[in-house]
Design goal:
With 153 residues, the protein is of the alpha+beta class. It is 41% helix and 20% strand. The protein contains seven helices and five strands. A hairpin with a 2-residue loop joins strand 1 (14-18) and strand 2. The structure holds zinc ion (ZN).
């Protein structure tokens, strides 16, 4: 174990500029000057990062999506009700042009709209999909330097 050049304590040392001189000192003494390299903090930092689980294991998330054949389902349901597009649009309180787009498959209804249609028509327009999401922390051990931390302040 090296000794602190100021107090002589046997400990992990840092290089600090104290009164214009580079000295190997303990952390306590380093506070009297300008710390030039801080190996201790760096190890603590990387330790912290490695302890933090980087979510590389996928975790499942249930997401609601519109069924791929929504256009046919809407059209069939409307025909079952014996309504033309205009009357049906009125019934669901949407624009006829929007309904037309949905029935031709050029407009996918939003989830709230799909829910409304499901209720009104008694059809299924929303499917639940399990999606694997890989969440990875942006902070990884590489690329994170003390300099970066200072810059971000
Ligand atoms: Zn010291």
């Amino acid at each position: 174990m090296p000794n602190c050049e100021i107090c002589g304590q046997e400990t992990e040392l840092v290089i600090a500029e104290i009164e214009g001189m580079d000295m190997s000192v303990c952390h306590k003494c380093a506070q009297f000057g300008q710390i030039k390299n801080i190996p201790k903090i760096k190890t603590e930092l990387s330790k912290k990062i490695s302890h933090k689980p980087i979510h590389s294991e996928p975790h499942l998330e249930i997401i609601e999506t519109i069924v791929p054949d929504y256009s046919q389902k809407i059209k069939k349901a409307r025909e079952r009700l014996d309504l033309n597009q205009e009357d049906f649009a009125k019934k669901i309180n949407e624009k006829e042009s929007l309904l037309h787009k949905m029935e031709t498959g050029s407009f996918e209804p939003s989830l709230p709209l799909a829910k409304k249609l499901e209720k009104l028509l008694g059809i299924k327009l929303i499917q639940k999909v399990e999606e694997e999401k890989i969440v990875s922390s942006k902070i990884s051990s590489e690329g994170l330097t003390i300099g970066d931390l200072i810059k971000k302040k």
